[in-house]
Amino acid sequence: MEIKAKNELTIKELNSIKNTIITATAESRRDILKAFDDMELQTELKARGAFCSANAFYKAEIESLRQTIKDLKADHADLLELMNLNHKG
């Protein structure tokens, strides 16, 4: 059994405090690293979401342009037919 003065801590108590600080520091470090990992994941998910949204938008735009081209080709064919009819008539 250790003898201590009124205001002194035993080595066992000091080691206990040190271990508590080390544990709290490690837990804080883990929490901080987890927070950074979570932020990185959220950023990556947001970037993927933005990419998917943009990709879907551009796919829709491309499909719209394809339809416009088909419509223009049909209009061109109709105009050629009208020109042929006017030329004959």
* Uncertain ranges: none
- Element string (H = helix, E = strand): H
Principal-axes shape call: rod-shaped
Instruction: Give the DSSP E fraction (strand runs of 2 or more residues).
Output: under 5%
Largest β sheet strand count, sense and barrel closure: none
What's the count of strands? Answer: 0
What features would you describe in this structure?
Helix content is 88%, strand content 0%. The chain is mostly helical and 89 residues long.
Summary keywords:
rod-shaped; 89 residues; mainly alpha
Provide the fold topology.
Layout: H1 11-88
Write a brief caption for the model.
This protein has 89 residues and is an all-alpha fold.
